[in-house]
């Protein structure tokens, strides 16, 4: 099977599977994954880096894992939370979020930062400590598959290549149990890999240096 066909088949399969997860299960697992992330990764990372963090996190939509528990946790601990906003030519910009009141319906009805929110300049992308990335499925080698539009491929490429590159950022995902698969996700040369999955039973590490 061609790589493109394999990706398409996996997307369709995972979209169907994700839609069948009951919302109360999705919510419960999301809350527990956020709690595990705080205890095992975020708080130790604050201690190592000497204070609050700069965390980029998307706002969940539809049947995605709920990101609000993780966002609220980071805000309550003084972290700067940067939320993506869809722009022209399939691009993402990052905006500082102070709370839920800063969010309004945007493209496709997805909640995103309002016009008054401050844009995080690309010159400061190298100061981002962690980026929480959406996905349809994740494997145990850091592989991820999204919807195929390439929004995060382009954002991460800009973050890694511009202004000296960001060598400190941790690429992570909030992952429900059923979204973590044993098979290897088909990857292309330009695809990035994750460092850690925030799962309900505890983080799954691809970068062993994140263990404390």
Please give a quick description of this structure.
The chain is an alpha/beta fold and 212 residues long. Helix content is 30%, strand content 19%.
What topology, given as strand order, has the largest sheet?
3-2-1-6-9-10-11
Distance between the termini: 41 Å
Tell me the series of helices and strands, N- to C-terminal: HHEHEEEEEEEHEEE
Helix content: 25-40%
SS elements, strand count: 11
Detail the poorly predicted runs: none
In terms of quaternary structure, the protein is single chain
CA gyration radius, whole angstroms: 16 Å
Mean pLDDT: 92
Task: Characterize the structure shown.
- By secondary structure, this protein is α/β, with parallel strands linked by helices.
- Helix content is about 30%, strand content about 20%.
- It has 4 helices and 11 strands; from the N terminus they run ααβαβββββββαβββ.
- It has helices spanning about 5-20, 25-50, 70-75, 150-160, and strands at about 55, 80-85, 90-95, 105, 110-115, 130, 135-140, 145, 170-175, 195-200, 205.
- It has a 7-stranded mixed β-sheet with strand order 3-2-1-6-9-10-11.
- Strand 7 and strand 8 form a beta hairpin.
- Helix 2 packs parallel to helix 3.
- The longest helix has 27 residues, at about 25-50.
- It is globular and about 45 Å long.
- The N and C termini lie far apart (about 40 Å).
Task: For the structure shown, list the relevant keywords.
seven-stranded mixed sheet; 11 strands
Topology:
Elements: H1 3-19, H2 23-49, E1 54-57, H3 68-76, E2 80-86, E3 92-97, E4 103-105, E5 111-113, E6 130-132, E7 137-138, E8 144-145, H4 151-161, E9 170-174, E10 196-198, E11 204-205
Parallel strand pairs: 1-2, 1-6, 6-9, 9-10
Antiparallel strand pairs: 2-3, 4-5, 7-8, 10-11
